[in-house]
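sanity check this record:
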Amino acid sequence: MSKKIAGPEIERLVQLLARVPGLGPRSARKAVLALLKRRNELLIPLTEAMQQAVDKIAECPQCGNLDTVSPCSICQDPRRDDGLIVVVEEVGDLWALERSNVINARYHVLGGHLSPLDGIGPEKLNIAGLLTRAASGDVKEVLLALNATVEGQSTAHYVSDRLAPSGVSVSRLAQGVPIGGELDYLDEGTLAAAFKARRKL
């Protein structure tokens, strides 16, 4: 039986941080110690920022992005190309593509990928919203910028089949995105090359 080394408030902080992707119990303890040591510079401002996030950040009803305005800043931007929708799995992928600074299109966040073993079917993803947008008449091309994983490939094929009746052109990211790679971990140059070399499905 392990000894308790801190009060319940600190233990709760560690447990909650350990649930953040990329952080385990050890990293969470380090992060909590850093926050507590720098209470005024880090902990208090972080607490305030997180409360503001809870109060103000919401999912965009059009594309699924996260923002403090609704529709999101990207959907409201009149300089964006309405004829191209870039489809991604998660908001992190959208942000990664925006950092590459080569895409001036609209986005659509599916909210994950198909995974029958995990009970994630088409009804659990925002595919219906994409089909509605594609059928609007303004959209000329849908670029499937999904992760180059088995699940991402399966999702891309399914979405492509569902989009076929709409008559829009469907393309995918090409060279630069390795098999098994995830967009959020790729550098801007790789993403830029993949975007420019996209190909039709």
